Amino acid sequence: MNNKAYFKDKVIIITGASGGIGRAAALAFARCKAKVVLAARNKEKLESLKEEILGQGGLALAIKTDICSFSDTQGMARETILKWGRIDILIANAGQYVQDAPGEIDLQAYERSLAVNFMGTLHAVKSVLPEMLRRGQGHIVVMNSLDAKKGIVGDGPYVAAKAALDGFGDVLRQELTGKGIGVTAIYPGRVDTAMIRHIKVPWISPKMSPEKVVGAIMRGVKRGKAVVVVPRAFSLLAPLNNMFPRLMDRAFRVLRIEGKMIRDQEEVGRDKNK
């Protein structure tokens, strides 16, 4: 069954829909004739995306949502059900790339990262679960990162939140087994979005397009996959780090996986054109 046939008429909530992976996912699912719910804090961007989808003959509902607020995500779920009667798929995608200086342990940065990247996903999941459990049907996509499998220097706050999300997703999948609700955790490498536009990455860890990640999401949901790593070549990262952690530390240092901060717009332009 192709994507259009599989996702047609499904009600799909996408958090973080105003840009990056979320925006690409909204456009892709809308092309499959899904009923797309766009959730993010930026109402103006959501409305613009909604009009773009409607202009292409798709169906979309824009709901201003701050995932750090449980009442907001509850409202998101209620409004979706009022509009379309059900929730078939949640793509818990909203997140924020939060770093700190190596060795400093900036407590505020950690708190901010956990609030958005961990608790925000929990809020969204908890808000849609009652409806999915009532129907005994649904699918939850937890957008994670390869950072959860192998931390990068300077990414402490982001890694901590994604590692917590890794554990939560693993437990959630087990707890929902036999209840008709699938859980797919997506672990992309670096993605070419505004979140990391300020970083020039090494050749071994190139930025992939959001559309490539969306393709992996669609395949993962259709096939009922528990875990999806994209690109697939990075699937060995976690087992190699478990077996040879110091060797992997050294490899990351030699390859400068953390990348280089781009300080000015002229340099951003040069990097983007390469």
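The above is record 1. Record 2 follows with the same two-line structure.
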Amino acid sequence: MTDPIEPTDVRALLEKYAFKLTDHRRELLQKVVDQRVRHFTMVLEDLKDPHNISAVIRTSEVFGFQDVHVISEVNPYRVGRSVLKGSYKWLDIYSYSKRARCLQGLKDKGYKIAVASTSSASVPLDQVDLSRPTAFYLGSETMGNHPDTLAAADIRFMIPQYGLTESMNVSVAAGVLIANLDRWLKDHGRKNFRLSDPEREALLAAFYERSAVGVDRNSPIHFID
């Protein structure tokens, strides 16, 4: 999505900011980076409520999912900083003005497209093949996913429900989904899905910089037309 940092630049960043951090801070950042995954990623398609966007971003960070993709073709990208609690600093958030650009970019990266749906054609989450990298789309609160997204989906899935209410709040559904994906990663050995060595080193350098001087020089938000 973004251009990778050259190895020489990564090493320079690590050396530049390491002395500004305590040993405890460096150890913590290394531990977090070692648990990061990109095997699963959340895609938020034209969500309206900043609370919902922020809640999904925060939950993704807590469970170690490094990337979040936000489509704002209809509704602008907005977040609630009180909900984020600074979590966005430790992620890569990709904001797209066009849904087609997001979809093609994910497919080019080898992601299977999975769309949350309550239709009869959907399969329960526990029957979805999760061995391939998968991007999970969550649609807008009122309209759901765009017809083009549904048409392009590799799979439509549903979270089993046993009540009378038709659906869950989108941020709650994301929380349930991410917790289930985390369980799958644990069952299959999370270390088998962690970032490559160069990716981890580059992410650690970014974390050093953001921790030492903030996000102005190394923004976690990437806007894509």
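Strands lie at 40-45, 67-71, 92-96, 112-116, 123-124, 134-138, 155-158, 221-224.
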